[in-house]
């Protein structure tokens, strides 16, 4: 089958129900996306499909044929993704780093859909698990990005 | 009346009572006739017959109850909790002392089709002999040939039942049998074609689908054993799962399924509407996937001929898109974060791998047990053609509270046109306790 990943076209020989994560990592060697729980519970395997965050461990590969998949390897090609990564560096979010590609995907998807999320929206979207407990740093980085975007996008005179 | 008359009347009454009791005990312990009493035995080494018997054993799913995980097949030992005490499935390997190696063909027939062991002891109807009664003489002969010649003997002793005296007295079961079973084998219906009749034979007989899917009466009897009753396969609660209607009810049954959908479900464990879960996973793993395509098509034909009940089923389900605002509620937010990765924000799932919840029977039936049970305990591994499934419902027992599970299920059962209705946190708490492996009040009878 033909897959579009990071704006490249790949020919993949896989069963229809193979998890997208296995294809990305094992067949295509894009190992930035991590295997966590395999049950859509932790979010380490998050990728973007047509801009929406999905958990690739529970996404049958046949379901993404004809759609645009973005993994952590190409996230900085995206303007929003680039700023998310910069904020992650600024706030020194990562500790062991295992969950962080998924966290960056979740934050990017949130900010692309909702440039100025409120606290509730951030809490609702940033639900990936982190075994190091970097939640405070993640929270600070996303809030900074939310404010930052709002400042840039706000019409003159509006107090934000 | 004088005192003497009273004494005489009481004496007569006692005598009559004693005679009645003796007759009942005789009736309840006698060895009934078998249609195969004069049939002798089966020829040794008839490979075709043994192979046919193995197929009947697959269709009957004997292994589900008469085996323990990681133990030799058919050696028994599975514990079944009943309100009166636990009973254990028996060893049905051909071991002469521990198993059924000493059974004649007629003894075997009496056990399978009449629920009577060789010495006249009645089996508990946890053994689905009310269904197996429909099996043909020829299938019984084949099954006997398989168990005697195709199965290796295992010297595992049977465990005695834990039901205390006098509740463990078995002869009254004979009266239950007289009231609630039909001893005649399946009779072809001449108004229907051969495919329909084959399907009816498999569903009513070997498949014993009614053991789970037909509602039971006060005496734990199936309310109908064939399609002459409207309650046959109309859906029932058992073992903490709601086995849905297999009749043509669009919401709670198979009304929206085609014959091809049904055959695909039984062959691969999944289709565009659903994936096997709960007790059905075991029926699929051990039994239905091994049936021939022709037999599965026959089952589908037969099930599609059973009319639904619009009054019980309600207005037919239609998909309704959900507004983004619904995900703000507690249940909606839980759905978005815990369920949507697999089942989709639109509730349509990723069929056939992950089932839709929009229009799912578990979200349409008034009984919420199946939805609660799978949310608490997750799904068993579905193994199709030797390959385990890639996707599995996780258990949320340790992650979500009773209230949270009630909230998310209430959301699912009221969104996308679903009409199942609210789930109460108390119902979740009850099922959580009953499905806890360490529970002192375990789920009743394993009926498979």
Automatic annotation (TrEMBL), chain A:
Residues 1-75 form the 2Fe-2S ferredoxin-type domain. It comes from the Bacteria. GO terms for molecular function: 2 iron, 2 sulfur cluster binding; metal ion binding; oxidoreductase activity. Pfam families: Fer2 (PF00111), Fer2_2 (PF01799). Keywords: 2Fe-2S, Iron, Iron-sulfur, Metal-binding, Oxidoreductase. This is (2Fe-2S)-binding protein. It comes from Pseudomonas turukhanskensis. The lineage of its organism: Bacteria, Pseudomonadati, Pseudomonadota, Gammaproteobacteria, Pseudomonadales.
TrEMBL record, chain B:
GO terms for cellular component: plasma membrane. The keyword Glycosyltransferase does not apply. Pfam families: Cytochrom_C. Keywords: Cell membrane, Heme, Iron, Membrane, Metal-binding, Repeat, Signal. One of its GO terms (molecular function) is heme binding. Residues 48-151, 194-307, 326-416 form the Cytochrome c domain. InterPro entries: Cyt_c-like_dom, Cyt_c-like_dom_sf, Cytochrome_c-type_DH, Membr-bd_ADH_cyt_c. Heme c 1 binds at residues 62, 65-66. PROSITE patterns: CYTC. It comes from the Bacteria. Its cofactor is heme c. It is found in: Cell membrane. The keyword Repeat applies. Heme c 2 binds at residues 209, 212-213. Its main location: membrane. Binds 3 heme c groups covalently per subunit. Heme c 3 binds at residues 339, 342-343. PANTHER family: ALCOHOL DEHYDROGENASE CYTOCHROME C SUBUNIT, BLL4482 PROTEIN-RELATED. This is Cytochrome c. It comes from Pseudomonas turukhanskensis.
